[in-house]
Automatic annotation (TrEMBL):
Pfam families in the record: HNH
Protein name: HNH endonuclease
InterPro entries, alphabetized: HNH, HNH_nuc
Lineage of the organism: unclassified sequences, metagenomes, organismal metagenomes
Gene Ontology MF terms in the entry: endonuclease activity; nucleic acid binding; zinc ion binding
Keyword list, A-Z: Endonuclease, Hydrolase, Nuclease
Gene3D superfamilies the UniProt entry points to: 1.10.30.50
HNH domain: residues covered: 2-40
């Protein structure tokens, strides 16, 4: 993010616009706050070099892994689409809903956010599941 804001609504921005044949890959995407995103609208060419340099200065080693995950997600999406209607959401959508609804980040709250249910209408109880050994690994002692 350019302005350094945190805990605010983030929007995905194509550094090279799609209308100018920009790709929809991770190396062409950056997250911006709403005001920074509006500032770049219609003036993307002025910001392209700056945003690409921000991406290049960060540690991009993990982008290769992320691209592989994206390929797997696209395959899974195609397979699931053959089974029925598929509704997609993203982590950004979930985060923005948490901010709008003023709820904390948790696995349970994220599950509520992706269903489009209102958090105050859900009576959800959180459980912690701990694995328990069935047998002790301690060696028996001889008397």
């Amino acid at each position: 993010m350019e302005c350094g804001k945190s805990n605010c609504r983030l929007e995905v921005h194509h550094i090279k616009p799609r209308r100018r044949n920009g790709s929809n890959t991770l190396d062409n995407l950056i997250t911006l706050c709403e005001s920074c995103h509006q500032k770049t609208e219609g003036q993307e060419e002025l910001y392209m070099d700056r945003y690409f340099s921000l991406l290049k200065s960060s540690d991009n080693k993990n982008l290769n892994y992320a691209q592989h995950v994206m390929i797997g997600k696209m395959w899974l999406r195609k397979q699931l689409s053959g089974l029925g209607v598929l509704y997609l959401t993203s982590g950004g959508d979930t985060a923005n809903k948490r901010i709008d609804w003023n709820i904390e980040k948790s696995h349970t709250n994220d599950a509520v956010c992706i269903t489009d249910l209102q958090p105050d209408t859900c009576d959800i109880k959180e459980w912690a599941i701990k694995p328990m050994r069935r047998q002790s690994k301690a060696k028996p002692t001889m008397f």
